[in-house]
Design brief:
two-stranded antiparallel sheet; 115 residues; two-stranded antiparallel ribbon; alpha+beta; 6 strands
Length: 115
């Protein structure tokens, strides 16, 4: 029995479709997926885009220079205003100390003298 071109074409299309279906679920190359890590967290951001940071431990800070000048001995400080009010040096600088070394201050501020 002789098969014609039409039958051969239809059978070839059916065979091709069956091959596609058979290999559709096969993975020849592993899929690359992003890691599902919990190493990131959301951080609340202030309306101006800044974030609030609270240090819970003592941090040692070494200042080498201020305004291009090396710092030796005491650090030079020039305060011009506090809370929007100008500072008059004859009246001193307003200071509000709430705690020293984690202890609340209710009276005089504890001081240590240099020998």
């Amino acid at each position: 029995m002789k098969t014609d071109l039409y039958t051969k074409t239809i059978l070839t299309v059916i065979a091709g479709a069956l091959i596609v279906i058979a290999f559709q679920q096969a993975e020849f190359f592993p899929k690359a997926n992003a890691s599902k890590s919990n190493s990131f967290a959301t951080v609340p951001v202030n309306p101006d885009g800044s974030i609030n940071v609270k240090f819970t431990d003592v941090m040692k800070v070494d200042v080498a220079e201020v305004g291009g000048n090396y710092v030796t001995g005491a650090m030079p400080i020039n305060i011009k205003e506090v809370s929007g009010s100008s500072i008059n040096s004859s009246y001193g600088i307003p200071v509000n100390i709430e705690a020293v070394d984690g202890s609340s201050i209710y009276g005089a501020v504890p001081t240590k003298e240099k020998n």
